[in-house]
Amino acid sequence: MAFYLALAVMALAVFATRIFGALLMSRVPTGPKVERFLEGLSVSVIAAMVASLLIEADSRIIVATLIATVVMAFTRSMNWAMLTGILTAAIYPLLLDFFASGIG
Amino acid sequence: MRTLWVLALFVLPFGMAYGVAATEAGITPAQAVLMSALVFTAIVQFAAIDFLSAPVAFFSLGLVALALSGRHIVMSVALSKSINELPIGQRLLTLAFLSDANFAEAQVRAKNGWADPGLVLGGGLVLWLAWLIGTALGAYAGNLLGDTEAYGFGAVLLTFFAATLLQMGRQSKGMGLPVLVSMIVGVVTLPLLPTGWNILLAAPIGGVIAVMTDRE
Q1: What's the pLDDT tens digit per position in B39-83?
Q2: What is the 3-state secondary structure (H, E, C) of A38-90?
Q3: Which of A6, A78, A89 sits opposite B51 (nearest CB)?
């Protein structure tokens, strides 16, 4: 029984955070400054998330992300970027072996 | 939308990880699946595992849930332009499935700040289903499926967000400084603030800087 009450508390809390922002904004007058703020807000959320994830990532993930970003810059294709990122992460141990044996 | 299928691929093992962790802590598989269905927020669900051993500290649990999902607030604000055009029922329904990935996907395809709510809802449903199925697999089938980390899925989230950031940077003018400041604030406050609050702080600061650097 306690579980279901806890579940209700959690479900309500996360639903509240999901709707609060939009409901708040429906009472705020819009204009070019507000729109620019929202634009900056959106980019900044993603930017802060990327930075936070990167700072905690191991070299394997960092290298995979770098490669994916470069691929994205050149191909403008999300699918290619993610594919190369995942592949890089998957074969990273092999890449390490390869370069290590080259130097050693 | 194709990208969201790849993300669903990430959410699936992540959901499995939750299913395993929850059942190992004593939550029944059915309860874990119900949790994923109604809460649909990974950080909150993982954090709650600790809280669910009797007696439950409901008030603390509520506060933790609010704090960890605070990021939803800024995403909800960012989407408000298009979301608030909908009748209230559809607004609430669409927002119920708000999550990092479908938010990013809708934003990157947005024209003039108008992000397609249909994409938020549709994408959200795909992610939700993957989360549910993953939880069920992890909860009921547990350790049979081995270590998916080796397949490189850990890179999915970061590669998606990094590539999205690049695309968004291209589409909006003068976002260099907001992005830089937001990243610095986010990283510097990461060890100082409760989980997720660094984003809550960094994003609005980035927004304000964007207004200040607007040359139009």
Answers
A1: 999 888 988 887 776 667 788 788 888 877 888 988 999 999 899
A2: HHHHHHHHHHHHHHHHHHCCCHHHHHHHHHHHHHHHHHCCHHHHHHHHHHHHH
A3: A6
Q: Say if the Cβ atoms of B41 and A14 lie within 8 Å.
A: yes
Q: The complex's ipTM?
A: 0.82
Contact predicate B12/A88, CB 8 Å = no
Number of neighbouring beta carbons within 10 Å of residue A54: 17
- CB environment B16-27: b (16+ within 10 A), e (fewer): bbbbbbbbeeeb
B111: helix, coil or strand? Answer: strand
**Coil, helix or strand for B114?**
strand
Nearest by CB to A13, from B66, B77, B151: name it.
B66
Give dist(CA A45, CA B78) in Å, integer. Answer: 9
pLDDT tens for B173-193 read 889 999 999 999 999 998 988
For chain B, give the number of residues. Answer: 216
Q: Determine the Cα–Cα distance for residues B186 and A51; give it in Å rounded to an integer.
A: 7
pTM of the complete model: 0.77
